[in-house]
Each structure stands twice: as C-alpha cells, then as structure tokens.
Amino acid sequence: MNKPPPDADPPPEEAATSPTEALTPVEPPTLTPEQVEDLKTKAAKADENWDRLLRTMADFENFKKRAARERQEAIKFANESLLRKFIAVLDNFDMAVSAAKDVDSVESFKTGVGLIHQQFKNLLAEAGVEEIDATGKPFDPNWHEAVAQQETSELPEGQVLRQHRAGYKLRDRLIRPASVVVAKKPAN
User: Fold this and answer.
1) How do 167-170 and 178-184 pair as beta strands?
2) What's the CA gap between 79 and 130, in Å, rounded?
C-alpha cells in the first residue's frame, strides 16, 4: 500500500468533524502602519472615482435628454427654410392674381405666371426634387405608373407614348411616379 506524503491533506474521513473546530476564528493578519496608510489612500481614491462616475453618468443622462429635445425640435422645424421659399412663390402668385384684375393684356399675365412657374420649379430643383421625364423612354415600373396602353406602330412596344402627369423624385427616392400611356403593337 502507498502511504500519502507527510505534508498532504488528510483524507476527508480524517478531517475535523467537530463543529467547534470548524468555526474557530482566524486571526486577521497584522498590518504595518505603511500598509494601513496605503489602504486609506486607496479607499479615498476609490471614493473619488465613484463620485466622478456618478457625476459622469448624470451628465450623460442630461446629454441624452437634451439631444432628444433638440432632435424633436429639429424635426419640428426642419422644413422652415424651404417653406419660407414657398411663401415667396405664393406672394408672387398673390401679386399676379391682383394684377390680373387690372391687366389689359393677357400676354403680360401669361408671362408673369410663366415666371412664377419657373421660380417654383427652380425652388424644387434647389431642394433636390427632380422631374421624371418619361416620354419616349422605355417603360420602367420603378419610375412610371402605366394608366393605359395604346396601339401604335410609331414606337416599339413597351415605350412610353405619352405622359399624363409628371413624376418626381427627391434625389434617388421616388416621390410620385409619372403617369404614362405605354405603346403596344397594333393587333393585326
């Protein structure tokens, strides 16, 4: 039989089973004055870091609330500058309507309304809105809405014959598809 080395832990059955032996208090190690001072310094630094963490968390919460408020306000008033420009176009329409009462010539009225129309188109273009010109182009369901088909031998089948209503896109996003009539081969 093998004997355990003398410094090995005793097997479990040989361990102390007396409750008083298991609960005997262990005496804490004795600390030098330098170690006590070091622990006090570390505890003060830990308290300082904890306070700094709490202040930083509070500042971050305040920042999140302020950013949410500012985002809501930005959304609420995002179109303000664009609407100011629309109001300028509306002012021109108001002046044209007032002038139409006193106009002796229909041509000058047409010219004024044409200028306002161009001003409005320029405003839309400045805002990134682009008109979709579909006439004579191949039908594209991503940009066009077919409202009818018409037999014709003038254009190949699937080409846009006429555009009823202009389509518009904002940069690369479709706002409204162009309403078009699509050519189809005549029935023989």
Assistant:
1) unpaired
2) 18
Per-residue pLDDT of the chain (188 residues; tens, 9 = 90+): 556 565 656 555 555 555 556 677 778 788 899 999 999 999 999 999 999 999 999 999 999 999 999 999 988 888 888 888 888 888 888 888 877 777 677 787 888 889 999 999 999 999 899 999 898 899 999 999 999 999 988 888 999 999 999 999 998 899 999 999 999 988 87
Q: Which residue's entry shows tokens 């080409």?
A: 159
pTM of the entire structure?
Answer: 0.56
Locate tokens 């896109």: which residue? 169
Spatial separation of the C-alpha atoms in residues 54 and 65, rounded to whole Å: 17
Per the CB < 8 A criterion, the answer to whether 143 and 177 are in contact is yes
Q: How many CA atoms lie within 13 A of 37 on its CB side?
A: 3
For residue 101, the Cα-to-chain-centroid distance in whole angstroms is 48
Quickly count: other Cβ atoms within 10 Å of residue 161's Cβ: 20
132 Cβ contact partners less than 8 Å away, ≥ 6 residues apart: 143, 144, 166, 167, 168, 169, 177, 178
Tell me the residue type at 126: E
